[in-house]
Protein 1
Amino acid sequence: MARKRKGLLLVVSGPAGVGKGTVNAMLMQRHPEIKMSVSVTTRAPRPGEIDGVHYFFRTKEEFDRMIEENAFLEYMHVFGMNYYGTPRSFVEAEREKGNHVILEIDVQGAMKVKEACPDAVMVFIAPPSLAILKSRLVGRGTETQESIDVRTATALNELKMLPQYDYMVINDVLEEAVGEMESILTSELLRTERNTTLIEKLTGGETI
């Protein structure tokens, strides 16, 4: 009998430049059952962007209606211009299919999701050190010194939120970081509270 389980919601945070996007991309490449959460936004599509793939593009009126309907796990107003939100329906639909959903989000949004979805698996991807993180930002060649200083200071504040997360993954060697993410998936799927249906079948004499 197939072991059908509800998929996991992985809330992944980490400072700018830590490489969380790269870690998540490699994890999804290895595991097709892992999906990236698609956000809703009020901004206009950019050339090449597809509704439902890159974002769900909605008007401000539609976004407001979704807020009233409690349709978001979290949402935010960015730079006083556009709204972005994590649609509850997309996440829940994918999880019911047995797929795992990654929500790559900042620490403030992550805390809102943790409150809205208590069974979310909270993962913080951290650098080996702030000095190494700063060198990575410099290596990008796209940041001003002022921007690098701001990002480094922000990273320190984000790191102080680590105790609010379930797991910490150090992204020093990419392959090892991805392997640790896979270990988190395995561990969480084996938790007894995520296998109540299977336990009931087993204790009822069925084969699982």
Note: The first strand starts at residue 9 and ends at 13.
Protein 2
Amino acid sequence: MTYQAVIFDLGGVVMPSPLDAFRAYEAEAGLPHRFLSEIVLAGGDDGAWSRLERGELNLSEFADTFESECAMAGGTVIVSDLFASIESASAPRPKMITAIERIRSEGLRVGALTNNWHADNAQEPRNDKVTKDFLGNLFDVVVESAIEGVRKPDPKIYEITCDRLAVSPTETVFLDDLGTNLKPARAIGMATIKVEDPDKALAELAALLKFSLEEA
């Protein structure tokens, strides 16, 4: 199979996972392990976190709602402190940046597909400076849930990304750190790689693409 494009998740793939920040916040705040993840999962599509990532809530609205969800579950969460922890751990992984540059140098198109959120009082996604100044130069296409109004794992957002890259799903490799986000990608024909160990994921990607992803 000859692939024409590679799509990367951001947090957990190109950058460290926000789940690491969840675990650190839980430890600092004296919350049970996985408390925040369980709140997000329990909320489902109608929960505060999903609504934030679809652009239906701004950060102030989200903070009130999510803090209330946590309080109802018996925990105290300060959203501003939680998000500061997430932002402080969002530096890109150098090996991923090198791999993306190598992929583009081989003539393939590269996209980013991320669940994110708007900042308060502006129609701007989170990490707006990083997105515009860094990711905008690194990727051919950046698709953000808060702008599209749809989030992974909804199949529509994968289709949007492929359309903007002008490729079919079967010509595409998708990398994400969450299995729930990979399943719908596979269902529409994408090759998928689960990123648990970044080095192993890049080795798997290099094997699929049939060229080195390391610096020349």
Note: The domain at 5-16+91-209 is CATH 3.40.50.1000 (Rossmann fold).
Protein 3
Amino acid sequence: MTTSRLAARDVRMVFGGVVALDRVSIEVRPGRVTGLIGRNGSGKSTLFNCLTGFLKPTSGTIELDGRDITGHAPHDVVRAGIARTFQTPRVDFRTTGRAAVVCGLYPSVKHGFVASLLGLPHARRAERHVQQRADEVVERMKMQAWAASKVSQLSMGRVRTVEVARAIAADARYVLLDEPAAGIGRDELRVLAGEIRALADRGIGVLLVEHNFSLIRMLCDEVTVVDTGSVIFKGTPDEARREERVMSLYLGSAAAGEA
């Protein structure tokens, strides 16, 4: 019986002789939130890109529920059930917040262009489901007051909320969030934290890259720490907080003094 998980196994990524990742391994399991932390330039985003098909590792494997998906194209990775956000949001700033959420649903739509063009009954039913699902996500993420606004008119915190909502709407089995709390206000952060926890409670595996260690401690079941492309620690957030090397390399004296 194959154990469900998204995993990187001994992943090495070299760019022109520079080693960005050196035999990094990590697992994201259904129903759990895994944190990935490290200083800027430590390899976190490179690992995200390997997991989601934007980069093919120099060596090592990416596995989805026991199946090797190393080097698969990003759109195939999405169809396989992996959604992600980006450190710099990739949202069409000309569209509305709600329309951006709707876009997150289309990878799961089964009917084709011709069926939609002809207005066939199954295509109309699927379209109604998409719109209903988008409204549900908008409500859950407390976006109702500004969902009809163009993304270009929103604060960066709300733009990030839109991108997270779009990933949530995709009905993925694994959701990878790259610094989703950056620029988000306190109220938005509270909603975001609740929704990330709700994802795990619904059996979805979450990988969270985040500089806000308070959020890591609040949400994560386990954490992997990377530095200069290598894993230097794996354990719980509280164990990471007590690890002197982790404190000195990443969290710093301010985090070490947190309650």
Note: The chain has two domains: 1-66+73-78+173-259, 94-171.
Protein 4
Amino acid sequence: MNLSEKNLREKKFHNQLQSKNKGRFENIFYKALHNAHEDFLKDLEISSKNSTVLDYGCGVGSSIEKTLKFNPKKIVGIDISEVSIRKAQSLVDSLSANNVELKVDNCEETGFQDKEFDLVYGTGILHHLQIEKCIREISRILKPRGKLLFIEPLGTNPLINLYRILTPKSRSIDEHPLLEKDFNLLKKGFSKIRIKYYGFFTLIFFPFYRTPKTSTIFRLLKTVDQFLFKIKLFRYFAWSSLIIAQKD
């Protein structure tokens, strides 16, 4: 497995992160993206049934556990962190899943054959990597008409960017939330690309609701967000995006 200096830094960061007993403080904010994950799972269910899928940067396996419920033919999970893969393997073993394979690998330069997967998906992984390399690699290992599905943070909201500057130890030094130039690269590499935006008022007012799934306040906030995100200007204030694309 060939690793660049950046890959090695990411490997070290995530090994250390997954070795801690306590989660990141920032986890308290992620309820603001509940609807992004709902939409992600809806598309994941449709795309993974009877398919060979790759969890690209699988972490400790939380998405794999959900994907198993959608009856895929096979799930392969890769991550650069050995600690994450060990935790993911423990989870898979506890689920007695016999159609899951996990391995330590470099997402930018995997060891897979060409046209091996029907679907490649991930959450919060592309912004840790070199986007151009990832696009080429995902395109290479996807079958014709195969799909990619990712949730990724955006780097356009100035207040969120200020928070990132003030809390450097909460993230790796090489992280780069996505910008318009990254989406332009995706559009060059894939057809039928669709991008949805999330996390404006749901983030600003996150102290006012506890459980987004049952919260009337959250439902109102997400509705307002989706209305505003139809206007291009407001997309610059979104926290996160859902990216769906298909290979020709």
Note: The first strand starts at residue 52 and ends at 56.
